[in-house]
Structure formats: C-alpha cells, structure tokens
Design goal:
Layout (H helix, E strand, L loop, with lengths): L1 H21 L1 E2 L2 E2 H9 E6 L6 E2 L5 E14 L17 H8 L7 H9 L10 E3 L9 H8 L6 E10 L7 H4 L1 E6 L5 E7 H5 L1 H4 L4 E6 L13 E3 L6 E4 L3 H18 L3 E7 L6 E7 L17 H4 L9 H10 L8 E3 L2 E4 L2 E4 L8 E3 H6 L3 H11 L1 H10 L23 H8 L8 H12 L4 E2 L4 E5 L6 E4 L4 E3 L4 H16 L16 E8 L14 E9 L6 E8 L10 H18 L12 E3 L8 H10 L3 E5 L7 E3 L5 E3 L3 E5 L4 E2 L8 H11 L3 E4 L4 E4 L6 E2 L5 E5 L12 H6 L9
Parallel strand pairs: 4-12, 27-30, 32-35
Antiparallel strand pairs: 1-2, 3-10, 4-5, 5-6, 5-7, 8-9, 10-11, 12-20, 13-14, 13-25, 15-18, 16-17, 19-22, 20-21, 23-24, 24-25, 26-29, 28-30, 31-34, 33-35
Helix pairs in contact: 3-4, 9-18, 11-13, 11-14, 11-17, 13-15
Length: about 725
C-alpha cells in the first residue's frame, strides 16, 4: 500500500511539475483557455462623418436612437412580483407589432425561438425593425409596461432639414453584416458615393472580468480608440437651398407638374449653391423615394428647347456671323423636304435677327446656322461641353446626344429640339457666358475634413474647362439675353427681378413620346429658363425646368418657371449682399487695424465713425477683428472685436444669418441656428455673462415671398410656345 500510494503521489507530483513548466493539458494551453474565460472585448463604435453645407450647417449626422431588446429567459427574474423577462410572448408580439415594422407572427417567432442546442437564449433582438427607434417611440412603447422589453442606446442617421437636396445628399441606413453586427451604409447620393470617407473605423477595449462580468482588480484595460468618419462640406449654401426648396414646393403644389428640376450655381467658380427636384423624398423615412431614384440634374437627359438658342447666338457672334439689324423672313424655313415653323406658326413677317432672338424665332436660328456652317456650329457646341460629361464630382452622369446625322437634325439642334443635354451641361455652358468666356467645371464637394483634428484631407478648387468664346462675345450675349426681358417683344418679361438687371432665355420644349413623335397641347411641354444675374457682373446662374404643369386656361407655361426663378434670384442676391442697381449710394468707411489695441478706446472710435462695435470677451486688448483691416464697410455695419475673458451675450435682434455665423465662429459658442433670414428670438437673454457651454438657440424669421411682376394679356401673347384660347 505504501508503495502504491507513494507511486501515485510521485506521478501526481511529476504531472504538476509538467503542467507548471509547459502550461499545457491534453494539448490545450491553460493560459489561452483562462484568457478566453475571463478576457472580454467591447466594441467602441465609430461615428459616421457629418455632411454639412459650405458654412458648417448640418445636413446629415448621427444622432441618438434606441434599439429594442426582449429578455426571454425566465432566470432573468429574481422576484416574481417584478418580472424581468417576457411572460406572455403572444400578447407582447401583438403590442409590439403596433409600433415596429414587423408582423405579429414574426415577432412571436423571435420571442419563442430556441438555440441550436435547444436552450432558450437570454435575450433577443428584432433586426432592422427594432433599431433606429426615436426617443418618443421608445417612451411610448415603455408606457405599455411589457415585462422583459428593454432598450439600449444606439445611433441613427438623421437629416434635420427634411427633403433638403434629397437626391443630391441621398441617405444611409443600418444594415446587418455577416457577423451579425449592424453598420450604417450609404445607399444613395453623397452618402453612397463617399461612404468610405464618411464611415469610421470601430475601436475596441480589452479587459479582464470575473464570470459575472465585473472588472477584476489590478487588471489592465487595452483600448484602441474609434476613428470617426471624415466630415464632408458641400458647396451648397443652406440659405439659398432653402429659398429654392420653398419656392419649388409652392409651385409643385399649385401646378401639379409631372416633374421639376432647378439648379443655382456660382459662375465664377462652378460651385453648385443649390440643387433640387420634384417629386422628392424624405431621407429619414424614404417616403416618396419610389417615384424616382435618379438625380435628374445629372443623370437624366432632356431636349432643352429654346434655352439652346443662347449658344447658337454665342457661336454666331464668335464666328463673325451676327448682324443684329439685318432682316430675315420669319414664319417658316425649308430644308430639303422638311419645313420648320416658328412657335406661332405664321411668324412676324420680315424682322431683324435681334428681334428674332427676342421673340425666340426658330427660323432665326436656322438662318444663323446657314451663315455659321454646320461643322463650325457642331464644333462650338462641343466646345461648350455638350455631348460629353461635365466631370462633376457625382456618379452616373449622362452625356446627352448631339444629333448631327442629317441636315434637319442640325437645324433643330440650333433651337434645342432633337439633340439631348443634361441640366448640369446647360449650367456649365452658361458659365462661359457669365464668366467672360471661361467655362467652369461644376462641383458639389467643397472639402473633406478629418473629424479628429479638423485638418483638410481634400479641397476642391475651381477648374476652367475651356474658353469657347471671347470676353467681348460673352458680354454681348449677356446684353442680348437681358433684352429678352426688357424688350417689348421679348418672351421673358415675366422674369424681371426688382432692383436687378437679369438676362436669360426661355425654353418651351416638346416632350417625346416613348414610341416616337411628340405630345401636343399647352400642358404637354417642358417649360424652362436659363438665366444669370446681375447681367453686368453675374454672381448667379439659375436653371429651372417644369415639365407638364397643369395650367389654367389664362396661364402661360412660363408662369410657374418665373415664380421660382424670380423668388430665388432676388432672395439670394440680397442674402449675398449684392447691391440693387437702383439703390442709393451709401457712405463707406475703411477698416483700421485694431489688433493689439484696447477695446474700450476702439469702441468709441468705431461708434464715432457710425459703426456698431461688438466685443466678444471682456475689456482688454483686441486679439482678432472682423472685417479685416483696409476693407471698406458701410455706415451702421457691425464690427466684431475678439478679446480674452468671459463673454457677455449681445442682443441678436434683427441680425442677419451672416452676422450670426460670424459671431458663432469668432466666439466659439454653441449657437444653434433655426430658420433663415433675420433673428426673431434668442434663448439666452442679452447681457448674460456666459460661464458654461449650454447651447444657445437663435431663431430666424423665414424670408417673405418677394415681389412678382404682374403680367398683362399682351405679354402672355408674346410668351414663347404658349397656346392661347382662340377667338
């Protein structure tokens, strides 16, 4: 017995020594098994990058939401009086089906399902239907008092401005990955194109815990921080975009057209300041998306109608074939076996080429084409970028088609029928007219910024695509475009904008039938306008197209187009501080260099000069100023002076959005801006000394609808392509 037990003890002793030396039992490393048992790993979720306008206003961002969880295992309940698991799966499924997009039967199956080994899971979730739940909905479900139903904080993609530039911005939504996790994926627009840049990299945290999940004493946490996605700043200006959305919504409701598109661009740079279309959709709910997934400004082609005459005119002037006072016979023009007619069918007898353009005579363009020559004409259209992509920083761009096979194709192309273009091509070509011959490539991405350190990763710069015409030709075209509005015989009288000289060309294009031929009737045209303002030094290009509006018997097709154009142009020019031409001259004063000087003495100096000083900080030396030195500013303007110390909030009453943005930038205060126009109220009273970082909400008034030029019967009869009641 002694030898037996002694031998067993010796064998056990040798086994212990072996395990201590090697750490291996039955081929498995004990350290690894212990780590697997006690080491935990938690995912640190990265935030998706924001999409913002050029001034930093939020267009899309991640926001707090909740996900729905059901605890189903009975051992979760320790006190029968306070159940912590689902007691009645059938009733719970019936109630939840009223709040989430999932059938009652599906919810019941989830609540009662078993694991592969037959055991019941501790808790279950409900996929996409149980995610992105708002705070309001969470509270509503919670009030039902369902045992075992709990919520965990989550994030969802939020679009605070509704259908704001929806087809451009697109949307992103959570999708379940192969490993069972959920990830926000861009599905359309900017959200999809720049999904890689917007998507962050999740981090992780490793730590040691006991079997109950509590952190073990003296254990080390290994943290790899999450890297949030980059922020994308668009060239869009939220204020101008809102002007556009507001006017388009009004016209869409009033005229119930089949579709609408509109674009506002800066001709100096090619930056797109606003872009929208109807029908549109809500990126939060995707309601309305079933109507159209395409960004029509980029991905759809149209027959442009008489807006194309702008570039036929420019070609004639550039090639020395423009004789404004020479006359031609209007009414009809025959080439081989085909005859084209003016929009009133009979013309106006012998008229000048200038009047022919103002009246939008198709025959005038046909005669000009004969003088220019077919090959030269098509060559210039290509110089203007038609027939090829603009290269805008968006995918899916269409090219359009220049029909040149037969002589009749070239004639109809001269007045915008047959050949097809995209709205963005019209915008690009118009930049050459507005920008003294230099044609600018359109773009929508201003910059991409690293959210961790605010460093710019990518910055877009204006790009000249070509110079199809000279500066003198461009100036002459602008003057003629202005005459379509000011001339007694012009087709664009409705497009007058009070206080500003505007130029542009109307368009009334026939709409092709799917099986060939064209639709007819006043309500079956694509009405459009391609314009610029102010004519002398254009700051804006605006294109508006309304397809098949439902017009009253006395209404012309240009009315819904003009309503959008005039409202957007006037509001935008005023917002951009472009002085009206009929405004009285105002007295200006040059800014001095105030940095380093005492704020008290400078306040007195500025007040005596008729300016309004705004000190951001306490009395002391000035560290920053706006506007900069030597800039001329008008009497009564605000001058911002930054100093050190606590900030006393001024009264923002009647401040413009521009001034609020300047104050926000210089002060660094968490100011939340609601609305557009001028300040109506502020959540923190004036003269309050600020010591914390609580948000300050500033509400602005929505701009009122501006002046609309009245139209008489004579003007209606001159409007291009309109069919009026016959006597």
């Amino acid at each position: 017995m002694l030898l037996l037990y002694g031998g067993l003890f010796f064998a056990l002793f040798i086994r212990i020594i072996y395990i201590q030396a090697t750490g291996v039992v039955d081929g498995q490393e004990l350290e690894v098994k212990a780590a697997a048992l006690y080491e935990k790993e938690a995912v640190l979720s990265a935030e998706r990058g924001k999409i913002l306008d050029r001034n930093g206003n939020i267009i899309a961002e991640d926001t707090l939401s909740y996900r729905l969880i059901a605890v189903v295992r009975p051992d979760a309940t320790t006190d029968p009086k306070e159940p912590r698991h689902v007691l009645d799966p059938a009733y719970t499924a019936k109630v939840l089906s009223q709040y989430i997009q999932m059938e009652e039967s599906e919810i019941y199956q989830i609540l009662t399902r078993k694991l592969s080994d037959g055991r019941q899971p501790y808790q279950v979730e409900f996929g996409v239907a149980g995610r992105s739940i708002s705070h309001e909905l969470m509270n509503t479900i919670d009030k039902e008092g369902l045992p075992g139903i709990i919520f965990a904080s989550d994030t969802k993609r939020y679009y605070p401005n509704g259908s704001f530039a929806a087809h451009l911005v697109g949307f992103a939504q959570k999708e379940q990955q192969k490993n069972g996790t959920f990830k926000t994926i861009g599905k359309m627009g900017i959200e999809s194109i720049y999904n890689k840049e917007l998507t962050g990299i999740d981090g992780k945290m490793k730590y040691e815990s006991d079997i109950f999940g509590y952190l073990l004493p003296n254990s080390e946490k290994m943290i790899k921080p999450a890297e949030d996605g980059s922020n994308i700043y668009l060239t869009l200006d939220k204020t101008i975009q809102n002007f556009l959305e507001e006017s388009m919504s009004k016209v869409y409701k009033q005229y119930n057209p089949e579709s609408m598109v509109a674009v506002v661009a800066n001709p100096k740079t090619g930056e797109i300041l606003a872009m929208s279309q109807r029908p549109t959709f809500d990126p939060d709910t995707r309601e309305g998306l079933e109507n159209n997934w395409l960004n029509d400004v980029i991905e759809d082609v149209i027959e442009p109608g008489s807006t194309m005459k702008t570039f036929t005119l420019a070609t004639a002037i550039e090639t020395g074939n423009w004789y404004p006072n020479a006359e031609f016979q209007s009414g009809s023009y025959t080439i081989l076996d085909r005859t084209i007619r003016d929009h009133n069918n009979v013309g106006w007898g012998k008229i000048s080429y200038l009047q022919g353009f103002q009246r939008s005579a198709n025959t005038a363009m046909a005669h000009l084409l004969q003088m220019i020559g077919d090959e030269a004409f098509i060559d210039y259209l290509k110089k203007f970028g038609f027939g090829e992509k603009t290269g805008i920083d968006l995918p899916g761009e269409a090219t359009g088609t220049l029909l040149t096979t037969y002589p009749i194709n070239r004639v109809t192309t001269s007045f915008g029928q047959g050949s097809t273009v995209t709205p963005i091509q019209l915008i690009q070509a118009m930049t050459a007219i507005a920008n003294d011959g230099k044609m600018m490539q359109p773009y929508v991405i201003d910059r991409i910024v690293d959210s961790a350190n605010d460093k710019t990763i990518k910055k877009s710069e204006p790009k000249v695509k070509g110079e199809p015409i000279s500066a003198s030709t461009a100036k002459q075209v602008r003057e003629i475009l202005a005459s379509t509005i000011t001339s007694e015989v012009g087709t664009a009288k409705r497009f007058q904008v009070e206080g500003y000289e505007v130029g542009g060309k109307t368009g009334t294009a026939q709409i092709a039938k799917p099986g060939g031929g064209y639709y007819y009737g006043k309500n079956n045209y694509l009405y459009s306008f391609l314009g610029l303002a102010p004519v002398e030094d254009p700051q804006l290009i605006v294109y508006v197209a309304v397809e098949r509006p439902q017009l009253a018997p006395t209404e012309g097709g240009s009315e819904p187009v003009a309503e959008i154009f005039t409202s957007v142009v006037q509001n935008s020019l005023k917002y951009l501080n472009i002085k009206p031409e009929d405004a009285a001259k105002v007295e200006t004063t040059p800014m001095g260099d105030y940095v380093g000087k005492n704020s008290d003495s400078i306040q007195v100096e500025l007040s005596n000069a008729g300016l309004t000083p705004i000190v951001i900080g306490e009395s002391g030396n000035i560290t920053e100023q706006y506007p900069d030195k030597n800039l001329a500013i008008t009497k009564g303007s605000l001058v911002f002076l930054k100093t050190d110390g606590a900030i006393t909030l001024p009264s923002f009453e009647n401040w413009s959005l521009r001034n609020i943005l300047i104050y926000k930038m210089m002060s660094g205060l968490p100011i939340e801006i609601v609305g557009d126009g001028y300040v109506e109220s502020q959540s923190v009273s004036a003269n309050t000394v600020l010591y914390d970082s609580s948000p300050i909400v500033v509400k602005l008034k929505t701009p009122k609808e501006m002046y609309t030029v009245p139209v008489d019967e004579t003007e209606e009869s001159a409007a291009e392509g309109e069919i009026l009641p016959q006597d």
